[in-house]
Amino acid sequence: MMDELRELYQQVILDHQKAPRNFRKMENATAAVEGFNPLCGDHYTIYLLVEDNIVKDVSFEGTGCAISKASASMMTAALKGKTRAEAESLFEKFHDLVTGKLEVEQAAGELGKLAVFAGVRDFPVRVKCAILPWHSMHSALEGDKTVVSTE
Ligand code: ZN
User: Fold this and answer.
1) pTM (predicted TM-score)
2) Topology of 2-149 in CATH?
């Protein structure tokens, strides 16, 4: 299981890093949050278009390492069309997965391919990279901040 996951992890990260999904500025966003991870130098802006409690569109732009970029890319793909509550729930599950509070087997059903990020849990620096886009998205959903930092 872990060997398969590791292989899939590398494939997925490479794929999304080379061809990030929804990598663009959004002019009609209802919320935008800038996220920094000073430890690694990751710096992204996450854009959300939320209407009638549905995430109608989500995109990102910025620069950073392969893990943060792949995480942001996969997050945008996972969130489109979700309700606000579903997006919050995904955020919590992803957070628990990468911090080791949720087992991979449990997470796989609900998180799908995002479960490959369990691969970062033994590397605290990488956890911050993977979670940065999610923290930014969470703040954008809550509408309480325009800048977040992992520090
Ligand atoms: Zn990083």
Assistant:
1) 0.93
2) Sufe protein. Chain: A (3.90.1010)
